[in-house]
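Final report, section 2: Outcomes. Of the targets proposed, Cysteine methyltransferase is the one most frequently requested by collaborating groups, and we therefore present its record in full.
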Amino acid sequence: MDKPKSDAHARIFAAIAAIPPGRVASYGAIAARAGLPGRARLVGRALGEVPDGMELPWFRVLRSSGHIAFPAGSKGFREQSKRLKAEGVDVKNGRVPLATFGLDANLDRALWGMPG
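The predicted structure is given below as C-alpha cells.
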C-alpha cells in the first residue's frame, strides 16, 4: 500500500477512518478533526488522492448541507447513496439529515437539547 502524500493527508484519512458505521461527517468537520479547520476543500482533494490499497469509508463524507457531493444520478452518487442506506443512514433526494446521522448529533442533543 502506498503512503499518504503528506502529514495533512494522513490526518484527514485518519479522521475519515474514525467515522463509525451509520454516521456521516461533512468535509469541514473532517478538516477540523484533522486539525485543519477551514480546509474542507483539502479534504475533497485528499479523497481524490487516496493511496492504492487504502480502504476508507469515503461514502460517509458529505457536503455541509448533508448532500452527496456527486452529481445527482451519477455512478458515484448512486454508489454513495447505496452504501449509506446499507448502513441504515436515511438518504432522501441525495441528502442526509445531519442532526440525526452526523458524527456529533448525539453530543449536540445532549448538550443543547437539539432534536435528532
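Strands lie at 25-26, 61-62.
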